[in-house]
Amino acid sequence: MNYEQAVAWIHSRLRLGIKPGLMRMNHLLEELGNPHQKLKTVHIGGTNGKGSTVTYLRNVLQEAGYTVGTFTSPYFERFNERISMNGDPVSDEDLTRLVEKVKPVAETMEQSEWGAPSEFEVITAMSFYYFAELKPVDLVIYEVGLGGRLDSTNVITPMVSVITSIGMDHMQFLGSRLEDIAFEKAGIIKPNVPVISGVHQPEARNVIEETALERECEVFQLGKDFTAERLALLEKGERFEYRSPIQHEVFELSMLGTHQINNAALAIKVVELLVENQEMKIEPEHIRSGLKKASWPGRMEALSDTQEIYIDGAHNPEGVAALVKTIKERFLHKKVTVLFSALHDKELRPMISRLEEAVDDIGFTTFDFPRVASVEELYEASTHPNKVEVHDWKTYLEEKIEVMQEDDVLLITGSLYFLSEVKPYLLPLLENYRKK
């Protein structure tokens, strides 16, 4: 089997759809020798902020000299990114080896009482085997795929569990009330494992606290047990003050937005617990340099040094709210143009109406992807006076870049799948423009 065949086999599992539940996963792992039981892990769930919290934590641990695995989704530019070690995606050769290991087990299960494992279950199992057997690491940070309680990553017993935020997303799977979504997210809480929460809505916090109480876990709540307060908007980042019973320090980030300060604070609290439990040795300078170095693709990511061009994966109402806050804080006296595309199973009207508060012009486009919203669907959901239908986003961006003035900001946002097509197209274009 070669790499292309391996990836094609993984993607062929998509036909099985999303299959919540852990019985299949447990059987698959048992057949592989239960590699997940050999790992030290941190488990990170939540509606928004998971990926950024993962990258802050990974960078801090790396600065302290540890080898860190990460399991994240979706990938941004290349499938291999989902399973990474110290930020480097799994090699084509190792990914192929992993498929050759997992494929026979998965195919045997097709005729069993458990049924065939889904794409996500297969990838999760591959990651466990990779970090336990092929490339052993000091710690793996697991990002929940969907929800928590029935997510295939939820077979681990981590050293720390984190719930970053609760918002209205994936409601067809998780429920339509914040309490329902919080219940699913709180499913990652394990008996006697400390929980760190960045959740701010009282009804969702109550669910997390009640679950933690039942399972005899200590909860560390952002804003109550530890705090993070912005001190300054930096040109390319944030400066903030972090306070807890253990430390009081000032840190800087290279990522933009109040929400990134909160994500970084969650990562710092994880570090404190790992040190307190004598799992790791990490100094304040490791935290300082790790946070500063951390970056995550598609999160207010600047694509140009000469023009204000950003991509941001605001793909649900809470993500859009965070983006709008950042626009108002940073680009108040500038002309902001947004190009937006999203999947039609998202809360389109609430997202678009919130975006319209903060932008001068808005274009709606589409791209080649299942479940994508049409240009017309997005356009009709908008009431902005300066809205346009964009049927060819490549030409639109080329023309926009050519006429941008000093006070113009161009922001491409919405689906991360869309941004993963935009970024590799735009980067060489911007490089050629810079050389002119």
Automatic annotation (TrEMBL):
It catalyses: 7,8-dihydropteroate + L-glutamate + ATP = 7,8-dihydrofolate + ADP + phosphate + H(+); (6S)-5,6,7,8-tetrahydrofolyl-(gamma-L-Glu)(n) + L-glutamate + ATP = (6S)-5,6,7,8-tetrahydrofolyl-(gamma-L-Glu)(n+1) + ADP + phosphate + H(+). Residues 298-415 form the Mur ligase C-terminal domain. GO terms for molecular function: ATP binding; dihydrofolate synthase activity; metal ion binding; tetrahydrofolylpolyglutamate synthase activity. Residues 44-270 form the Mur ligase central domain. This is Dihydrofolate synthase/folylpolyglutamate synthase. The keyword rRNA-binding does not apply. Keywords: ATP-binding, Folate biosynthesis, Ligase, Magnesium, Metal-binding, Nucleotide-binding. Pfam families: Mur_ligase_C, Mur_ligase_M. It comes from Rossellomorea vietnamensis. Its EC number is 6.3.2.12, 6.3.2.17. Its cofactor is Mg(2+). Belongs to the folylpolyglutamate synthase family. Pathway: Cofactor biosynthesis; tetrahydrofolylpolyglutamate biosynthesis; Cofactor biosynthesis; tetrahydrofolate biosynthesis; 7,8-dihydrofolate from 2-amino-4-hydroxy-6-hydroxymethyl-7,8-dihydropteridine diphosphate and 4-aminobenzoate: step 2/2. GO terms for biological process: folic acid biosynthetic process. It comes from the Bacteria. InterPro entries: Folylpolyglutamate_synth (IPR001645), Folylpolyglutamate_synth_CS (IPR018109), Mur-like_cat_sf (IPR036565), Mur_ligase_C (IPR004101), Mur_ligase_C_dom_sf (IPR036615), Mur_ligase_cen (IPR013221). It is an enzyme of class 6 (ligase). GO terms for cellular component: cytoplasm. Monomer. The keyword Transferase does not apply.
